[in-house]
């Protein structure tokens, strides 16, 4: 059984979309724990609404790449549009931050809310 911390964020109807993604993750995986979701300022392109961000610790039988693909399908289902604007508005953004105790996402070091969320879910993470 694999364990992953999934960062989830939204700034298009964020309350609705985060609630929906939490339901989907709970249905598709074993949710071990989740953080509170907090309002954060956009990074990069700042002329957009604030984001609602948090993280979910899951257990899954999927391997890493199939999990990434599954998360992309969830994003697509919830209306994610992949545009040329990398840091633009989105219905939902799902990223694997930690995989089986290994930190994968360098945003952990740059975004305080993400670091706080990850360490809340996995306080003994070596980083």
- Extract low-pLDDT stretches: none
Roughly what is the average pLDDT, rounded to an integer? 93
Beta-strand residue fraction = 25-35%
SSE order, as H and E? EHEEEHEEHH
User: Total helix count?
Assistant: 4
| Gross geometry | globular
CATH class: Alpha Beta
The N- to C-terminal Cα distance equals 22 Å
CATH homologous superfamily (4th level) name: 7,8-Dihydro-6-hydroxymethylpterin-pyrophosphokinase HPPK
Radius of gyration over all CA atoms, rounded: 14 Å
Structural class: alpha+beta
Number of strands: 6
* Helix percent band: 25-40%
Tell me what the CATH architecture is: 2-Layer Sandwich
Q: The biggest beta sheet, please? A: 6 strands, antiparallel
How many domains make up the coordinates?
Answer: 1
Predict the CATH topology: Alpha-Beta Plaits
Oligomerization category of the chains in this entry: single chain
Write the topology of this structure.
Elements: E1 2-10, H1 14-28, E2 30-34, E3 38-40, E4 51-60, H2 64-77, E5 93-99, E6 102-103, H3 107-110, H4 112-121
Antiparallel strand pairs: 1-4, 1-5, 2-4, 3-4, 5-6
């Amino acid at each position: 059984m694999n364990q992953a911390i999934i960062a989830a964020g939204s700034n298009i109807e964020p309350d609705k979309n985060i609630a929906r993604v939490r339901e989907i993750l709970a249905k598709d995986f074993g949710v071990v724990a989740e953080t509170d979701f907090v309002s954060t300022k956009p990074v990069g392109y700042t002329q957009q609404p604030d984001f609602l961000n948090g993280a979910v610790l899951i257990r899954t039988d999927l391997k890493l790449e199939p999990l990434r693909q599954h998360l992309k399908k969830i994003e697509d289902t919830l209306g994610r549009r992949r545009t040329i604007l990398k840091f633009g508005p989105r219905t939902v953004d799902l990223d694997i931050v930690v995989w089986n105790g290994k930190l994968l996402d360098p945003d952990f070091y740059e975004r305080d809310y993400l670091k706080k969320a990850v360490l809340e879910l996995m306080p003994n993470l070596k980083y």
